[in-house]
Amino acid sequence: MPSVIPEDSVGLVTPELLHFSEPLALACGRTLPAYDLMVETYGELNASRSNAVLICHALSGHHHAAGYHSLDDRKPGWWDSCIGPGKPIDTRKFFVVALNNLGGCNGSTGPSSPNPETGRAYGADFPVLTVEDWVNSQARLADRLGIGQWAAVIGGSLGGMQALQWTISYPERIRHCLAIASAPKLSAENIAFNEVARQAILSDPDFHAGHFQEKGVIPKRGLMLARMVGHITYLSDEAMGEKFGRELKTDQLNYDFHSVEFQVESYLRYQGEEFSGRFDANTYLLMTKALDYFDPAHAHGGDLAKTLAGVQARFLIVSFTTDWRFSPARSKEIVNALMAARKDVSYLEVDAPQGHDAFLIPIPRYLQAFSHYMTRIEV
Questions:
Q1: CB distance 13 to 68 below 8 Å
Q2: I need a surface site. Which of 23, 130, 282, 324 has the fewest CB within 10 A?
């Protein structure tokens, strides 16, 4: 709980639920007849409507990116270190828009929402979504807010994929793209990790083919396992070693398979327990599939440079040395393709021990470069 809200915070913020009644055609061939998006905004839209920045979230993210919902909040929004007065995304200059994506479980229409055809929760009947679908829904959000062109679209991990897709789907509506700790498509290893996580959920007896809400249960064990697997991939070996090493919780070994003996076991179980209480299992399945399907170069025979030939935005691509989930080599694929397509691109590789999660951490060199780039954006 903040006893005093910091001066560089956006302060107390209130989410807004926006309804869209126009049907949205999806890549899977289905159509959402109508949908809601949960949105937060920070800062003020200028008179020329030229200072708007869109924040795209990663797999388990949501609309609450900065500030506090109440003075009782234990911590601020998930990217508070980067959004606010004097921070890289300076709300004295920019009007910042953050949303919970379609298919989410934090207010936007998703699997836990009522299906208008049945009156019951969609559950497994909610359509599979793609990054392109999200960008299309975000374009409608921009229309609703009166934003013809984003000054920048910014995201880390899966959010970076959305930022990249914006430059392809709506090249004239984005001036700058910041893709952080991201990739042009998932590796086979990444898809494999996602499949293990999905199978943990799908095989949970309480999953009930995705209609667990009707049974009054949640596939808690499956969600816990999925989160534990995922969390291991978000941290580097070095970060895990520094944080936990082989430290034991007690001096006594129990010589069994059920006791929590190592600190790292305790940490993973806590993460899984906490996550299973706040995240929807069907949303987890949707988000990981959207990651798997993302491959914009597929339409051009795998030629990413050709795919990016029509983009108009300028780019900042950022990677982190110990991120083995989305390694620097994957960011360099984007950079090389942009250079081959003769686009304006800046690249930063940050030496950081935290692994994939580094994009969420206020690492000085990262924040300095981030801030410097954002000051170059004219509004």
A1: yes
A2: 23
